[in-house]
Specification:
The complex is a heterodimer.
Chain A lengths: L2 H22 L13 H4 L2 H35 L11 H33 L6 H31 L8 H23 L2 E2 L5 H8 L5 E4 L7 E4 L6 E5 L9 H16 L2 H23 L12 H38 L2 H15 L7 H7 L5 H14 L2
Chain B lengths: L7 E4 L7 H5 L1 H4 L1 H28 L4 H21 L18 E4 L9 H5 L1 H4 L1 H11 L24 H17 L4 H21 L11 H4 L12 E5 L8 H5 L1 H33 L4 H21 L18 E5 L7 H5 L1 H33 L4 H21 L21
Antiparallel strand pairs in B: 1-2, 3-4
Helix pairs in contact in B: 3-4, 4-9, 7-8, 7-9, 7-15, 8-9, 8-15, 12-13, 13-16, 15-16
Classes of the chains: A mainly alpha, B mainly alpha.
């Protein structure tokens, strides 16, 4: 590596670090969570049920991930042979290869999807075999379309005159732009019915956020999310969370949590983090595919997909650290807005019995799969607030 | 080239139609329809007997074979008469060689494998589906079970192609006293395929029906004139990748989205081209190329989606890039009247295209299963689909002012008119 290139890389690293530091800053106070024992907080049978369910779910994830990597490994090695099935140019052929790669992964993961439904049924959770197979088929179609758009951009830029192997530099901003567009447009497309509750206006005043709150039906699990940018900002509550056994106090806490996301600009921050991860990812793709002629060549696509998935897997623990941090800030925001730590505590305990989420999962599960603080951590935060908050 | 099918269509029609008999055609056919209904009842009973006997003997008894042959021929004659594929009033006996649209059938019973006789109705399902799409049931008549004619629906219009040919042919014949060649050929093809299907199901032949329109119409000597918009390519490109066939609809999704986006631009380009052609008499070159690329791209995408082609097509509609390709000439002078009323003039062609679309869909579904099993496309269905796509492309070209030559519905490829 030349000295100039090393300096450039160093400067890039410094900019990345500063940007990450700026994005990391939050309203969370410096705190030490009190240690709680999950065996005290949750009934023994409920805890054992959640832990058993989650442990097998973890195994499914592990098996799926390994299968995915094996299939993509083979595809990276032998996938080029499918170029003969294309009469399109390099970009079109690249799209075909990409779609075939996704299709193979889909087919390989299908048994796990079916097993997952079977496992959920054993624990009385909802799940549809039709949705897991045929429904997944349509989801695969949507993935194909997004993949083709992504490959058209990447390969188009990689083939652009004068771009050479620096295509990854403009590519990352293009995807960030698309992400912004998507974040802005998506809330308009989701629909839902208006949510009315006496506490909404008060919460909006406390959080300094005034946005439409909508209820989405068609879901079987309790959940909620905030999304949108500027005029499209919305909070969406999945219907089960506004129905018993979830009490209005808990719904108030949930809504405060989601408004907290918006109040602290978490959507913009997520996009910022996405940008920070996009550059190294694009760079890794550029480096990895060089030996196959770069991303402008269709034959590089199978390898690029493998690299993409591996890099995503490597980044996953980091991304989870970021999202856990954002979620913790939203929890804190909800506590400050509601002054009702008991409601939060009840909500998180109910989550364990309703979704069978392990309140205190094993370490590797926490690192790779938990994009929220664990239920135990969230309950600990409510205790901390109750004890120390002004 | 394959061995000729034992059930062959013969066409000796001269296109001439009597306006009076055309106008009253349905009413005139009433005695035939009653007679046909009675005959079908007989076939239901004898068909079951024929099937049971054949399972044990390996071939149908001679008397029953002749009865089935006469029934199939009569059905073809009657359908041809009703659908205006032929002019004269048919006889009631289904005799061989007595009608311009006739079916050649094996003179003697054919020895057949017993297990295929046993499950003949199951084996015949794909052919019955295609037959229903082309002619309604089989030739509008036989929907047999276990080698027996079980149900007669008469000429019910269920076969979109034959029905559309009949309706359009009725108007054309009344106006001109002649049946248009394209409609006559398309109708004859549908009748021929239905006869092959009926022969297979009724154990007259053990050869599976061949959907290839060109082979079906070998007896038709006169070709339609060469159309300025032609489908070219490699018809022997039958290999299919099982993986891409399995995921074909999903793999085609990006193309379908791109096609929709392109269609929006084409809509405005076509309007502009209409004004240009109306005032200048000749389409604008740039718009002509743009619209030609769109029609070609559409053909590529549909060919891929409907399994007529194997490779993933490009996104630009470039010529010479796909096994099923479109040749389009340059912009030529067009009749202003035809240009002015283009949308209305295109309506009959749209009806034929929609009817062929049904057959194309049935063919694609069946090809999907076949290709998954065998890794190749069946020759007959591939050519049926290519015929449907060719007509659709000519229809699009007509509508989008690439040419003022009307799409020709004949499954036969056109040839240059002989130099005088």
């Amino acid at each position: 590596m030349t000295r100039g290139r090393a300096a450039l890389l160093l400067a890039f690293g410094a900019v990345w670090t500063v940007a990450a530091w700026l994005l990391w800053r939050s309203s969370l106070p410096a705190y030490h969570l009190p240690y709680l024992d999950e065996h005290v907080l949750f009934p023994a049978h409920a805890l054992q049920r959640a832990q058993h369910y989650s442990s097998v779910e973890d195994l499914f994830w592990l098996a799926k991930t390994i299968t995915q990597l094996v299939v993509l490994g083979f595809f990276a090695r032998y996938g080029v042979r499918w170029t003969r099935e294309s009469a399109a140019g390099p970009i079109g052929t690249g799209m075909l290869l990409g779609m075939i790669g996704f299709a193979l992964v889909w087919a390989a993961e299908l048994p796990f999807a079916v097993l997952d439904v079977w496992w959920r049924h054993r624990y009385g959770l909802s799940g549809s075999y039709v949705q897991a197979t045929v429904g997944n088929w349509f989801a695969l179609g949507a993935q194909f379309v997004l993949l083709c758009v992504a490959l058209a951009i990447v390969m188009g830029l990689a083939r652009a005159r004068g771009m050479g192997d620096r295509w990854w530099l403009p590519t990352a901003p293009v995807f960030v732009g698309l992400r912004i567009l998507l974040a802005f447009v998506t809330p308009w497309l989701l629909g839902g019915s208006a949510f009315h509750a006496p506490y909404v206006a008060a919460l909006e005043r406390t959080e300094h956020v005034r946005v439409p709150v909508r209820v989405l039906s068609g879901f079987s699990e309790p959940n909620a999310f905030a999304t949108g940018l500027g005029a499209s900002r919305r909070v969406f509550l999945w219907k089960p969370i506004v129905e018993p056994p979830f009490a209005p106090r808990m719904d108030r806490f949930v809504l405060a949590h989601e408004l907290g996301h918006l109040a602290h600009n978490h959507i913009w921050k997520s996009i910022g983090w996405y940008a920070l991860f996009a550059f190294p990812l694009a760079f890794a793709l550029a480096v990895a595919t060089q030996r196959r002629g770069g991303m402008g060549v269709a034959a590089a696509v199978p390898l690029a997909i493998l690299v993409y998935v591996v890099v995503q897997l490597v980044e996953l623990p980091l991304q989870n650290v970021v999202t856990r941090h954002l979620e913790a800030e939203a929890d804190w925001s909800a506590l400050r807005a509601t002054h009702d730590p008991a409601a939060g505590r009840q909500l998180f305990r109910l989550f364990a019995s309703q979704t069978l989420e392990d309140p205190n999962p094993p370490g590797w599960d926490y690192v790779f799969l938990q994009n929220h603080p664990t239920l135990l951590q969230r309950i600990e935060m409510t205790r901390h607030y109750a004890r120390d908050a002004p | 080239m394959h061995d000729p099918h034992p059930v062959r269509l013969t066409v000796e029609d001269d296109y001439r139609r009597s306006r009076v008999t055309v106008f009253f055609r349905l009413l005139l056919a009433i005695p035939h329809l009653i007679w046909f209904f009675l005959w079908t009842l007989l076939i239901i009973v004898t068909g079951i007997a024929n099937w049971l006997i054949s399972i044990f003997t390996g071939k149908p008894p001679g008397a029953l074979h002749r009865l089935m042959c006469n029934y199939i021929r009569y059905q073809a004659h009657l359908t041809a008469y009703l659908a205006l594929v032929a002019n004269p009033y048919p006889g009631f006996a289904g005799g061989a060689g007595e009608y311009p649209i006739d079916i050649e059938l094996p003179a003697e019973p054919v020895a057949q494998r017993r297990w295929t006789i046993l499950i003949r109705i199951v084996l015949g399902i794909p052919a019955l589906i295609v037959s229903a799409a082309l002619a309604g049931s089989t030739g509008g008549n036989v929907s047999a079970g276990g080698g027996s004619g079980r149900k007669s629906r008469g000429f019910n219009g269920g076969g979109a192609l034959l029905f559309v040919c009949a309706v359009l042919g009725w108007f054309a014949s009344l106006a001109r006293g002649r049946m248009p060649k394209g409609l006559r050929d398309a109708g004859a093809y549908a009748i021929g395929y239905s006869a092959q299907t009926a022969a297979y199901v009724l154990l007259v032949a053990d050869r599976y029906p061949n959907a290839d329109p060109t082979e079906m119409l070998l007896a038709v000597i006169d070709r339609p004139p060469r159309h300025p918009v032609r489908v070219v390519g490699d018809p022997y490109d039958l290999r299919r990748s099982r993986l891409t066939v399995f995921f074909r609809i999903l793999l085609a999704l990006p193309h379908l989205i791109w096609l929709v986006l392109w269609s929006i631009a084409v809509f405005f380009a076509a309007i502009a081209q209409w004004f240009v052609t109306l005032f200048r008499g000749t389409p604008a070159g740039g718009l002509h190329r743009f619209l030609a690329s769109f029609v070609r791209y559409r053909l590529h995408v549909y060919a891929y989606l409907m399994l007529v082609g194997n490779p993933f097509p490009g996104f630009t509609g470039a010529a010479g890039t796909y096994p099923l390709d479109l040749e389009v000439g340059g912009p030529e002078r067009q009749n202003r009247w035809k240009t002015g009323f283009r949308i209305f003039l295109a309506i009959p062609a749209f009806l034929v295209s929609a009817a062929l679309g049904g057959a194309l869909f049935a063919s694609a579904v069946l090809t999907w299963f076949y290709a998954i099993l065998k890794g190749s496309a069946p020759w007959g269905l591939r050519n049926l689909s290519a015929y449907a796509l060719r007509y659709d492309a000519q229809n699009q070209a007509y509508l989008l002012l690439l040419t003022d030559a009307y799409p020709h519905a004949s499954p036969l490829e056109g040839e240059d008119a002989p130099v005088a």
